[in-house]
Batch of 3 targets.
Target 1
Amino acid sequence: MTEDDLYSQPDQKPDTGDELRVHEVRTALLDLLAEVGTVTATEAAARLGYSSGLCSFHLRQLARHGHIEEAPHRGGRARPWRLRQHNPAVGAPVEEHFGDLARGLEDESWQRWLAQRDQAPTEWRHDEAFSAVAYLTPEEMGQVADVLRRALVPYQDREQRPLARPDGARPVALITRLFPLLPHATDPPDEV
């Protein structure tokens, strides 16, 4: 069965084993739209390395859930898509809405990992999750983020170049959120 066969029914929900692939494809499509503005399924397939049928399906699903919309076009078969310019329900700008979607997908993936990690191969049944609180200035917070981004540079081409992946490599979610901790309503005003 090909990816096109798997997703040929518009309302077909992927089974649990395919959910990671769904997250990967939809995230890649949203990232591409954020980068280039508008894209057709054929263009997305050429850029991302998926089939045009798979890209078309996921673009329609993203539109169905209000994350993207059809872009104006001159007719014909080409159907360009773009990120929603405005979310009428919340009035949030595109960047904020995209960030909320990405965090939701990250949280969903984390919950699925917690629920199913015992089904992973033995060598993959651990994670490297951690959290920390550090007292930083805004500039230092940006510097920490830059250090983390630079640490990932040697691995970034592996997504687009499967032959660069060593044996045994699997997709691993790398999620970093740096944000200031706001005081609770009951904290004294000078505490942060």
Target 2
Amino acid sequence: MILPIVAYGDPVLRKVGAEIDKDYEGLQTLIENMWETMYNANGVGLAAPQIGLAIRLFMVDTSPFADDDELSEEEQNQLKNFKQVFVNAQMIEETGKTWPFNEGCLSIPDIREDVTRNDTITLRYQDENFKEYTETFDGILARVIQHEYDHIQGVLFTDKVSSLKKRLLKGKLTNISKGKIQVDYRMRFPLLKKGR
């Protein structure tokens, strides 16, 4: 089932997600619905807060990035084959050089900004069967994971741009929260007046 994606301005996007366990009701159905929702919106990642749930769950499928001709064959293969659910993720370390990359977000449509992040991360997480992993990721894969991890920490990519950029984006962000935007996927707007 395709779920509505929560728009910028909804308080759930600012909450730190709670950990879940294998008794979390309807988890497998939720994961299936999140995959369907993400693909319907042409996303490469989706976090539970973006569908209104303040829990530590997100997913990533980087296959759309695999067509980038500027990447090495090894990088293309890594991105083409990476599809993962992350449960109860905890960032262990962010290392390596920092680099800017143009990011967008399904909860903040029509806004893209350069965000600087570390190129290597180490993450402890569980998969949807609650098997635990500690893995290191780098490059675009690390970036996508960092973006989704931020969501379960109550952080948005617009928090990471300069204060000048934030001021310039304020009007657009307000319009998004009021539903004054055209998108081709289902959204839930926090400030949309009833009856409009």
Target 3
Amino acid sequence: MSKSKLNPADLATPLSEEEFDELDEFLVSDVTSEETLTIEGLDGYLTAMAIGPTTVPPSYWLPGVWGPSENDAPAFETMDQAQRILGLILRNMNGIIISLEDDPDEFEPVFGFSRVDDSEREYIDGEAWAFGFMQGLSVVRADWQALFDSEQAREWLNPLHLMGSEELTPEEQQLIDTPEQREALTKQIPASVAAIYRFWQPHRQAVHERKLAAATQRTEPKVGRNDPCPCGSGKKFKKCCGAAATLH
């Protein structure tokens, strides 16, 4: 079997530095389009998927990694290469999830660095990361409505919006005019991610419990209408829970 084949048992393995660099190089290679996310943008994009209220299948979000158009899909040289890159992306996603579950306050986004003109000063630059995050959020925007309705949560989203949105008001643009302003906003992003992760955590847990309950119900034998009601009332199911508006 080719080493590039996807093995579910391997998907929880974090990327090594060499694998991270391999994915980075692929994303900016001639095989991809100019619209494909950079490694920083991909990290932001996957983080938006990881911290939101719903579990989004890769088939839904993966096309957005390559760009807005179907024509942006990479021209993989072989099926093995496609499987290899997909595996790296999925493992990167799982690594983000594991890091957040372990301690959201210690989560470290993959930021870039920038310099202005010939200055020796290097600034932390979260623009590409935030752009990827906002792109990821747009994929599932309807699911995030409760966050948009919360004034406090909108404040958490503010540095991500300012750094990553394509359309800003003139007043907002003034807040990111200088590299110092952009670096200050970039430094706020980790705390925002942790807060948004916690905001959605109860919802994610509730969804998980509902899925677990549904799976449990499917494994239990079906109760016939003439069988004793499982609530223990002694009545037949059709005369008890099978007919009642509220279950016991």
